[in-house]
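User: Quick sanity check before I run a bigger batch. Here is a single chain. Can you write out its predicted 3D structure?
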Amino acid sequence: MSQVRKILVTGASGYVGGRLVTALLADGANVRVFVRDANKAQSHSWANQVEIATGNASDFESTKAALTGVHTAYYLLHSINLGPNFDEIESAMARNFAKAAQSCGVSQIVYLGGINNDEKTSKHLTSRANTGKELATTSVPVLELRAGIIIGSGSASFEMLRHLTHRLPVMTTPKWVSNKTHPIAIRDVLWYLRNCAKLEKPVGGVFDIGGPEVLTYADMMQKFAKLSGLRKRLIIKVPVLTPKLSSLWIGFVTPVPTSLARPLVGSLISEVVADPAKSIDHLIPKPTEGLIDVEGAITLALSHVSSNTVKTRWSDATTQTAPWQKAQSDPAWAGEALYKDTRVRITDASMEHLWEAIEEIGGDNGWYGADFLWYLRGVMDRMIGGVGLRRGRRDPIHLRVGDSLDFWRVESLVPGQSLKLYAEMILPGKAWLEFRIKKLPNGQSEVTQEASYSPRGLGGQLYWYAVLPLHTLVFPTMIRNLIRSANRKDYAQMIKVSPVDNFDLN
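Assistant: Done. Predicted structure follows.
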């Protein structure tokens, strides 16, 4: 190639897209990302190495601006978490993107879809295939890669199977547990995707990609158990568990919410196996070391989970917003009202350790007291289809903008100064939880903890007053224990110096 091609990555804040950007940069590519929230993109390690274009793939003008000057555009968007009409949204979005790409003279579109070779197919897989067809309605060649289950730390399918296996020694499952699937490691998916950008000429066509093994879902879960040091699981197949019932059960047992589990489970009715006739090996040969087998992929994924080195997660994608909800960053005047619970404390604790305590909140670390109430609220949220508390944290110590944090999401973060969380639980309004710290002239530190709530209608106002008594228990306890945690860190640092260091032993 005479010059470095401009490459656009959509879905760069998501599970696959975030990792693809890193891989392309490692290849020396000139990368532009197309995201809805620039602040979220700025939180990634690659932010200073890429161009950031903001907009929405449903909006022609912002999409056209992002595609201007681009040679290869990666389409890694999906809308399965946007309600029952997600297929219509996906089709319209793909049509818009294709038209914008054609108008900008884009040479190649690369799309990652799902294997769809079975006569029995789900709404999700059908929508994935239709998205590819819509992208191919213009003169721009579309190289469509179709994959089955992607095994990697942080993928929705991986987390769903892992938690089912770990938590249920005895499972009653639908008959689809005996269906065949063709899993592929995330590393190998990235191998194919990154090499699409290196093809000499644009390519159009549909290509299936899969790992070296074809096995059943039951076999996969047994491998999860074996590699996790667990006993072989007892799997009992029953005919009465429909995809809808299964998704409700998965939403209760695993971190994956019912709204996302439903289309994923629906896809399990199909045999998802790559067709050798659709191989891409003649264009992109397999890695020299070969494709990673299922046990190898699971082992790699589990090692990242145990070492807290998960780079991207399925939950990085923002949860759907209800039709009546506005953008997260709406000003106070945009809603009917804005109720606040503000707590301010002065402490001798250091700014450094106050920030550490703030940044470590949630997940396995808990919420600094009254954790049973947080747990109860999470259970209630799961029961009505929300995300609950099981998403936990990506990293036990550090946060970044866009991270999911139990049923919150990090909306803004200024290291050492402030953290603002946006509630993604189901409630009749919108809620935030914010922490701010500052150094006072006298050397002490000021901690501000503020819960804000913008209600929707009368129901939203009644909700605020209903939970107000609980605030008197939760929020004073939270700020008190947060400061105590910082004080303990100060004390631990103080006693690190051994007393023997104070004596001259000569």
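Confidence is low (pLDDT under 50) at residues 319-335, 502-506.

User: Great, the batch can go ahead then.
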